[in-house]
Amino acid sequence: MEKFSKVKELLASVEADAEKFYNSGNNAAGTRVRKAMQDLKVLAQEIRAEVTEKKNAK
């Protein structure tokens, strides 16, 4: 559940940069959004592995 909380925190922290990129055309904010999305992908994969491990342990 800790990793899921990190996902929510990451999404909340990148929201301002996403607005800057999409609404203002700020390219630096777009770079930060891309990095955050990559971090999100890694976290999601870790959560998937954890869920699969717990499911198969039963």
Q: What is the gist of this entry?
A:
The chain is mainly alpha-helical. Helices cover 93% and strands 0% of the residues. The longest helix is centred in the C-terminal third of the chain and has 31 residues, at 27-57.
Can you describe what's shown?
- By secondary structure, the protein is mostly helical.
- It has helices spanning 2-24, 27-57.
- The model has no long low-confidence stretch (mean pLDDT 94).
- It comes from Pedobacter panaciterrae.
- This is Histone H1.
- InterPro entries: Hc1 (IPR010886).
Features:
Hc1; 2 helices; 93% helix; Histone H1; mainly alpha
Q: What helical percentage do the residues reach?
A: over 70%
Count helical runs: 2
Total number of strands: 0
Beta-strand residue percentage: under 5%
How many domains would you count in the coordinates? 1
What characteristic shape results from the CA principal axes? elongated
Protein name: Histone H1
Family: Belongs to the histone H1/H5 family. HCT subfamily.
Function: Might have a role analogous to that of eukaryotic histone proteins.
InterPro entries: Hc1
SSE blueprint:
Layout: H1 2-24, H2 27-57
Helix pairs in contact: 1-2
